[in-house]
């Protein structure tokens, strides 16, 4: 086992990265996993511990445990727990000190306002098939769609003959401090859209990813005559469809942040990361153990670091957007209940007349398939595909091109033929 002195020596090298965020939460989770395993062993053996394991599995475990010496078993559990924590710490240290840095540069912005930019990924060596306005979430940085030289949805679209315009929301500045969703949708997104509209006479197709799909839908409903299609990638709608209790719990946690919202005017990144941790508290513990065992020079390790850098490079939400998303969306389920309004106009999916596509990844933990499917069912002219992927893997994973990008390209090409 790597001793404490070695970990401290690594930390004293002052590696450039501060993540994974929030680091105290990840460390506490690892420590609690180790201590709880030792404490739970005797309780599990005597049947007094409540467990998610089935009765058959508990009985099978006890039968196996009874065939070995209790002290030897306890020592084995102790060794395994220490080894897993050590692997986790080694993985975190390796990530923090890794030499990789994002190996692509943002293209030139063709429009900007405040902290928001519009980045153009021009079609390569051909007349563009269509102009695509791509809208990411306000929570994470837009470059998940242009992550690296090996994984870039936007550059792939350009290589397939599309002009892609990516909205980069940026970090809220003093200008955006008081913004709500209406300011972002009717204001910034509307201005970005018109910047494209002024460049071409053909209708634009919008693509929204995650929360960006909700923003894109609200915009599309207001500008249908200027659009030829809307693609929604892992877009939530019915926030209570899969787990109403869990959604309300997230809203309750947000209520606890209210003093910070009022004081700072924003919900800090680490608070948002803490909310995401509640979806799978052991995810960080598992994935950094896996990373520790990788060849640190391999493409797999480089992809891990690239994605982890993006995850740790989040931006805060303005206080009012946080209240609307966490309080109204998660708490009151306003989109599905017909209570979400932009400039006084209810966002009603069944009013959308243009063709739409909903990509609903089957293994999405951030946006449960039931939540996204409720939106697809409400759209009058909507096709759906359900790739075997997760929320982030659908755009950055090794199978993203085959499972998501190419089916999306086929749909986009169909919409181009109808223009």
Give the DSSP E fraction (strand runs of 2 or more residues). Answer: 5-15%
CATH-wise, what's the superfamily of the largest domain? Alpha/Beta hydrolase fold, catalytic domain
The ordered string of helix (H) and strand (E) elements is: HHHHEEEHEHEHEHHEHHHEHEEEHEHH
Q: Could you say which structural class the secondary elements and strand pairing correspond to?
A: alpha/beta
Uncertain regions spanning at least 5 consecutive residues:
1-12
Radius of gyration: 24 Å
Kindly state the percentage of residues in helix: 40-55%
What strand line-up does the widest sheet have? 1-2-4-3-5-6-11-12
Cα distance spanning the termini:
64 Å
Commentary on this structure:
The model is unreliable at 1-12 (pLDDT under 50). The chain has 2 domains: 4-96, no CATH class; 109-238 and 335-417, 3-Layer(aba) Sandwich (Rossmann fold). The radius of gyration is 24 Å and the shape is globular. The protein contains 16 helices and 12 strands. The protein is of the alpha/beta class and 419 residues long.
């Amino acid at each position: 086992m790597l001793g404490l002195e070695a970990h401290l020596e690594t930390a004293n090298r002052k590696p450039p990265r501060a993540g994974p965020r929030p680091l105290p939460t990840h460390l506490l989770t690892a420590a609690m996993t180790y201590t709880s395993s030792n404490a739970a062993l005797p309780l599990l053996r005597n049947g007094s511990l409540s467990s998610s394991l089935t009765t058959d599995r508990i009985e099978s475990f006890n039968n196996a445990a009874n065939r070995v010496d209790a002290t030897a078993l306890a020592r084995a559990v102790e060794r395994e727990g220490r080894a897993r924590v050590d692997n986790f710490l080694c993985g975190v240290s390796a990530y923090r000190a890794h030499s990789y840095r994002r190996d692509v540069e943002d293209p030139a912005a063709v429009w900007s306002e405040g902290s928001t930019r519009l980045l153009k990924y021009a079609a390569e060596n051909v007349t563009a098939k269509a102009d695509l306005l791509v809208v990411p979430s306000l929570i994470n940085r837009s470059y998940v769609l242009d992550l690296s030289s090996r994984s870039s949805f936007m550059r792939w679209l350009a290589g397939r003959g599309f002009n892609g315009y990516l909205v980069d929301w940026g970090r809220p500045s003093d200008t955006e401090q008081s913004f709500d969703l209406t300011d972002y949708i009717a204001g910034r997104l509307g201005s970005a859209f018109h910047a494209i509209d002024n460049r071409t006479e053909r209708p634009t197709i919008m693509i929204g990813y995650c929360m960006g799909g909700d923003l894109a839908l609200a915009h599309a409903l207001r500008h249908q005559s200027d659009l030829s299609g809307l693609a929604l990638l892992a877009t939530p709608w019915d926030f209570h469809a899969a787990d109403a209790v869990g959604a309300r719990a997230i809203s309750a946690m947000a209520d606890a942040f209210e003093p910070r919202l009022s004081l700072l005017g924003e919900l800090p990144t680490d608070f948002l990361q803490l909310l995401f941790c509640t979806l799978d508290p052991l995810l960080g513990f598992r994935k950094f153990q896996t990373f520790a065992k990788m060849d640190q020079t391999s493409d797999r390790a480089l992809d891990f670091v690239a994605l982890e850098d993006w995850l740790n490079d989040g931006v805060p939400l303005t206080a009012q957007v946080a209240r609307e998303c966490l309080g109204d969306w998660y708490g009151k389920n306003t989109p599905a209940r017909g209570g979400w309004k932009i400039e006084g106009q209810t966002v009603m999916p069944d009013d959308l007349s243009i063709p739409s596509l909903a990509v609903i990844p089957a293994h999405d933990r951030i946006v449960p398939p039931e939540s996204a499917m409720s939106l697809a069912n409400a759209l009058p002219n909507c096709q759906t595909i359900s790739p075997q992927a997760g929320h982030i893997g659908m755009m950055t994973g090794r199978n993203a091109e085959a499972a998501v990008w190419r089916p999306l390209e086929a749909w986009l090409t169909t919409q181009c033929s109808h223009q």
